[in-house]
Every structure is written in C-alpha cells, then in structure tokens.
Amino acid sequence: MELDAARLLLSKMGVAPADLLTEPVERPQVPTFTDYIPVVARAVSAATARSYSSYWRRLEAAWGSRRLNEPSPSEIKHLAEESRAQAVVRRNAAENFIAAVRCLYRHAVADRILTEAENPALKVAKPRRLPSPRRALADHELIEINAAAAETGDDPYLDTLLLRLHTETACWRGGVLGLRRRDLEETQCLVYLREKDGTSRFQRCRRR
C-alpha cells in the first residue's frame, strides 16, 4: 500500500523511480506565456485554437513576460473573474478562461516543463455551470417558422428544405454547411453528417 502511494506521488511529480538512482538533470528554463502560447496554439486542433484564442490573448496581455511557474491559483482565479466581468456574453466566460489556461498547462506538463504538482490551473475550480436556457420548440412554433420561411425570403424552397433537414436529423449548423452531394444515400434515405468536434454519423430522412 505504501509502495503504491509512493509510486502515485512520484507520478504526480513527473518523476520516474529510475530518476532517483541517477544524477539530477538540470531542467530547462520555464518559458514565458508569450513564448509558450504559440507553441500550444500550433499543437491543438484549429477548432480548439479558435475557441481559446481570445482567452490566450488576454493571458498574454496580462502576463506575457511572466514564466509559467510564476502565477498562483489565486491570480488565475482573479484573471478569470476579470474576463467574466469584461465579456459581452458573460455566461461561461470565466469557465472558458479557466479551460483555456488548463489546456496551456496540460501541454506544459506533457512537455515536462512543469510537473503535475506544479500545475496551478488544477487548483482553480471551474465556476458552477448555469442551467442551459435552451428548450425544444413547441409544435405550433415549428409550424409558424416553416410558414414564415415558405412565404418570405429570397429562396423559400431552399429555406424550407434546410428547416426540414434540421427537424428530421437534429443536426448542427456545421453538419448542413459541410454537406456534399455524395453524402446522400438515396436507396436507404440516409444522409451522412459531419459535425462539430470531428463527429460524423448517418441519419435517416423521409422521402418527399
């Protein structure tokens, strides 16, 4: 039991048991936020970079010349609250800021710049997420939307077709924008949808 606890502690510190038998190796200098943010931005997916870019810019503006091991958990929490207070849409600004900071520090731990125990972002709790205001449309609301689309606009046929696709497949906007002709399987009335976060699926549709 004690041996397992020791192994767990070493793992959290980023130290292998074999490291205890060798001469200590001098660790590289911890980079500044200005130096390291572009490294992480290149390593993550394009979607993640877009989601976190505004928070990383705020982080760089506030702490650009500081090294990753300098800010305390309290400082990170304070900057997250500032981000929430200054955001136009404040709902999840603090939560998203902390997620962006955690992403940065996860890469720093993976790159062996910091150990798990030195990661201050893990000591900052995310704010409690508020219940989503989203709800399903009532039948009469859906009828009204379809009627408005069919009677107005530059291309009522296309508008009603898109509404029908969303209604029958519950697809995201990205699934529609990424749709190609070869994604339609007419024999079984299937449509192949490629949606957010790289997910994809076949969805059945009704024939007209």
Automatic annotation (TrEMBL):
**Record keyword DNA-binding present:** yes
A Pfam family = Phage_int_SAM_1
| Integrase SAM-like N-terminal domain sequence ranges | 33-110
Instruction: Identify the domain of life.
Output: Bacteria
GO MF, one annotated term: DNA binding
Q: Does the keyword Protease apply?
A: no
Q: Which UniProt keywords apply?
A: DNA-binding
Q: Give me any GO biological process, just one.
A: DNA integration
- Protein name listed in UniProt: Integrase SAM-like N-terminal domain-containing protein
Q: Which organism was this protein described from?
A: Amycolatopsis camponoti
